[in-house]
Amino acid sequence: MKNNKNHRFSEKYWNIIRFHSFYPWHSSGEYRHLMSSEDYEILKDVLMFNEFDLYSKADDDFMITKEIKDYYDNLLEKFFPEDL
Prior knowledge:
This protein has helices at residues 11-19, 23-27, 37-50, 66-79. The protein is an all-alpha fold. The N and C termini lie close together (7 Å). The mean pLDDT is 84.
């Protein structure tokens, strides 16, 4: 994604994408002794994102409706207007 010059993500969101799967860091408090002040800001953003991370949520009644699919298709078109 980073090689796609048409993306519109700020550095903040690149960091969220980069670190949200690094669970020992943001879930268990590991590696704090290696962190800089910038890392604490990134951690704050990753923790905020986790509230909305669909992988960590359970919803057995969730169905992808046409409206939901259209919404996300429009977001993909907006942020990735060309092929990835």
